[in-house]
Specification:
Length: 433
């Protein structure tokens, strides 16, 4: 390993990548590989919460509805009194979103949600508690979709609420009998599939991922797949039915549907991975949805939501396979979906962990052939400064492919803009000696 200028590790990139994969978050002590939606902290939190849960009654559903709704109604009544364009209707108040003041949690409009959720998560009367949690998520999502949540305070609150539900559903999966667990998960799935989440793919998939807690046991695994299939069918029906709807400009300005950018845009997914038969590409749809959903027809909004769901649900599909113990199928799924950056990274991590360097080299070839500009999202820049080329370099190092490495370093040195000239000189010398 002596380059003539001191000791130089000719396998440094291979060693750094292996160390990161084996000791970073890509490693898993629970399963044989990384997961995307499942996190060991969910199980830890549900176990830690067991000391606070007791066999105590929870509020009945109608009372929970009232407790949640009352502060929300006070909030809208207050808006109606201060916004000149507000109009009273048979069902409440209609206010153009543009005229609404920005929503703030300090308004206490969601204090009823806090009360109902706190009451529910303290009980081991699983079905009653989950019924109230489902109601809390449903009403919170509808409320957030109907206010001017420009600072995303409501949206962040909803995300935290969904995590609370995931922790509680893990406790249900671990402690309730299978029949009770199935009923509880069905309640959450029903909420995930209602209209308030169809334009919010990531949060919909997060709710559906409550099923992952059930996937770990043979007698409850099918509940998780039922939830997944219900979500897929719902989004397919939504996209199909939207194609027959006429575009209504009035709907875009009413607070009765979600029109802020976050319902469609918050998923932050790369829609360019999907093809679209309409005149607008999937990437164009995503960009317009983030700018202003009112620029899109209902059909286009539905298509953007469908594309986002198709991307987000890949993570749930993979995690179900991984958690169910279908190791080969989970790995095959990652490889088959290598145009999705996180999935490609995860498969590379699997190959690195098992030191399958030739397979890794072949996989890099596949990624760069199909999507030449694909970046990495699960490896930090200091580990992969040249993105997929660094992963290729690590594989070549481990395989001792001297000539290819020399050519790689020479090419970098010929690039006058490369910032790592000194390091590449060392590497070139090390492999030339």
């Amino acid at each position: 390993m002596d380059s003539g200028q001191g000791s130089f590790n000719r396998r440094q990139d291979a060693d750094d990548l292996t160390d990161y994969v084996n000791n970073g978050w890509l490693s898993s002590n629970e399963f044989d590989g990384p997961t995307f939606l499942w996190n060991h902290m969910i199980r830890e939190a549900s176990r830690e919460g067991s000391d606070q849960r007791n066999d105590v009654p929870v509020a009945n559903l109608s009372d929970a509805d009232t407790v949640i709704n009352m502060p929300m109604q006070w909030y809208f009544d207050a808006l109606a009194s201060m916004v000149p364009t507000a109009e009273r209707t048979d069902t409440g108040v209609e206010i153009p979103r543009i005229d609404m003041p920005t929503f703030s949690l300090d308004s206490q409009a969601l204090s009823g949600v806090d009360a109902v959720v706190g009451n529910a998560v303290a009980s081991t009367r699983w079905l009653d508690a989950v019924g109230n949690l489902a109601k809390a998520v449903e009403m919170t999502a509808r409320f957030v979709g109907n206010v001017a949540d420009r600072d995303n305070e409501g949206f962040d609150y909803l995300k935290d609420l969904i995590q609370t539900v995931r922790v509680y559903m893990d406790a249900v999966a671990c402690n309730a009998d299978p029949m009770t667990g199935e009923q509880a998960l069905r309640m959450i799935t029903q909420v995930a599939c209602n209209e308030d989440f169809r334009l919010n793919a990531m949060q919909m998939v997060e709710l559906l991922s409550c099923g992952l807690s059930f996937a770990q046991w043979d007698d409850t695994r099918m509940f998780a797949y039922d939830a997944l299939n219900k979500g897929i069918a719902t989004m397919s029906d939504f996209a199909s039915s939207a194609s027959t709807l006429s575009n209504s400009a009035d709907d875009s300005n009413s607070r009765d549907i979600q029109t802020d950018s976050q319902p469609v845009a918050q998923a932050k997914t790369d829609l360019s991975l999907f093809e679209d038969d309409d005149s607008l590409s999937a990437e164009d749809l995503n960009n317009l949805a983030m700018l202003d959903p009112a620029l899109l027809s209902e059909k286009e909004i539905a298509q953007a939501a469908q594309n986002q769901f198709d991307h987000a649900v890949q993570f749930l599909r993979h995690d179900l396979l991984r958690i169910s113990g279908d190791i080969d199928e989970a790995d095959r799924f990652l490889r088959d979906n290598h145009t999705s950056e996180p999935l490609a990274d995860a498969y590379a991590a699997r190959l690195i962990a098992s030191e399958r360097w030739q397979d890794l080299l072949n996989f890099v070839d596949l990624v760069e052939r199909d999507t030449p500009n694909q970046t990495t999202v699960m490896f930090p820049e200091e580990v992969v400064p040249y993105e997929w080329e660094t992963i290729r370099e690590a594989a070549l190092e481990a395989l001792g492919r001297r000539d290819e490495l020399i050519a790689m370093y020479q090419e970098r040195l010929d690039d006058t803009y490369d910032p790592n000239t000194a390091l590449n000189h060392l590497k070139l010398q090390a492999w030339q000696d």
